[in-house]
Structures are given as C-alpha cells and as structure tokens.
Amino acid sequence: MAIIGKGLHSLIPPKSQTEEVSFPKVSQPLRVKKESVFNIETNKISPNPMQPRQEMDRDDLSELADSIKEHGILQPLIVTKTVRDLAKGQDVEYALIAGHRRWAAARMLGLPHVPAIIRDSTEQQRLELALVENLQRADLNALDKANAFKRLHDEFDLTHQEIAQKVGKSREVVTNTMRLLSLPQEIQEGLRSNKISEGHAKMLAGVKSPQTQKALYDEIIQNSLNVRQVEQRVREVSVSAHKRKIFHDPEIKKIAGQLTGYFGNKVDIHRSGIGGKVVINFSDKEDLGKVVKKIIK
User: Fold this and answer.
1) Which CATH number fits domain 1-122: 3.40.50.300, 3.90.1530.10, 3.40.30.10, 3.20.20.70?
2) What is the pLDDT of residue 83?
3) pLDDT digit string (tens) for 30-86?
4) Range 238-242, long-range pairs (CB < 8 A, 24+ positions)
5) From CA 75, how far away is CA 116, in angstroms rounded?
6) Which pTM does this prediction carry?
7) How far apart are CA 237 and CA 63, in angstroms?
8) Is the N or the C terminus of the chain less surrounded, counting Cβ atoms within 10 Å?
9) Closest by Cα among 170, 128, 134 to 149
C-alpha cells in the first residue's frame, strides 16, 4: 500500500540486519543476548493463544499505527516458527510470542512485512513473555493480569512467589490481583469497563460477603467514592459485622442472662478480640451497693 511512503525502509529493516535485543528474564531457553531480526510476512503470523490482553483499545491502536507510520516498528516482534510438510514442499507459519499490538497496528496499516525475532518456546514461556511484555504497559486490565497469573498457577503449577519472581512483582501483588477473580461478575465487568479502578476492586475483594461487596460497589458508583473512602467504608462494615456476630453469640448471651439473674441488674458483655468487658447496670448508689456486696460476697 502507498500509505507508508518514504518510511518503508525504516519500517522494514534489511534481512541481513542483526540487532542487540533486550527482553525480560523468563524461563529458559529464552535468556539470550543477541538474535537476528528477519522480515516476516504479516499474514503468516497468527496471534499468541496465550496472550493475556483480551481487549485492545481502538483509539490506542490507531495512535500506535500513526507512530509506526511515522517512525517504523522500533522493537521487533518475537515469534515462534511452525513448519508443516505438504504434498509439494513445506508451509511455514509463525505464532506471536510478544508484540501483539505492534502486529495489529501493522495489519491496520497494511504492512506486508514486519521485523521479528524467531525463537523456540514452550507454552509456559510464551505466556510468561507475553505477560511480562504487557505488564510493562500501565493500561493492561487488572483482570487480564489476574487471569494470566491464574494460568501460570493452574496450568504450570507455579506458586505465587514463583510468579512474582518471573514478572518482577511482589508476592502480595500477585495474590491480591488474583483475588479479583473471586468478585461477583457484575463487579468484574465494572472493573473491565473502568467504572471502578483496580484499587476499588482490591478493597471490595477484601470483603467476605458477596452481598456486601455488591452493596459497596453500588455505593461507589452512585456516590463516586474514591479508594480512600471505600477503604473507610470497608472498615466500618467489618466492625459492624463483628459487632453483630458478638451480639448474636448464643454462649455470650446465655452468660449475660445468668449474670443478670444473679445480680438482679441488667448485665452486658462486650467482646474485643479474645477479651472484652462485663458491664453491670445500676440505677442509684443504693443499687450499686447491692451489686458490690454480691461481688465481694
């Protein structure tokens, strides 16, 4: 197509060109220093089935396409090669490991070739590298991250600590991100559509009751609560739930009733953690004296 004009040579480096490429540390054998960059037919490349990013913003992709049109593809794609034997010769195809957005933008521009590094990889390595590459971009949806972490955990038996080491995050970040997948579907959809932020969602994930999560979610939407305000509301709800649990504790209620019968005055028991306090109510000084006599009797 004629849309790339004089920028064609900058978009497609010569086949003989070799560049030093740096990339994140993932499982072996992907830790190499220098690799050759080849021009590969764009329509011979298929998407990475392990790609964490489920959706791409159309406007963002258009901006990337404009940048590529102006400056070229500055960082090569990374692909794996598949050769199929045919009746007459062989057919070669490529699957993306990293560079999904660059590939999509190149297709949008109609580029016939893209610069790429060919690399052997396992399914785990393809997921790791695609995840690490996407984590370098701040706009990767939290649920896409959570699902990618979950796949590394479920399909490849990686612990949260091992996942954290591979993607350069703390174990707590990995664990808290994966907890987002336990949220009710409506809240997950709200997070994906940016009705709430990742910070909001992590606060809600700390609430045990799905009904309470939903109620707090509605509060966030209706009152435009920020993350700090949601944190305060979660704290209030947790304290209230704890008090209700204590109030309905049948053993505590039974003991309070026995003490009330013994003193002839209403007795309240307030729990706090593993301790608490006993409150004996009295009406006047004479009534207090009767209570004291029974205590020291």
Assistant:
1) 3.90.1530.10
2) 81
3) 444 567 889 999 999 988 766 666 667 777 788 888 999 888 898 898 888 888 777
4) 238/207, 241/209, 241/212
5) 8
6) 0.53
7) 44
8) C
9) 128
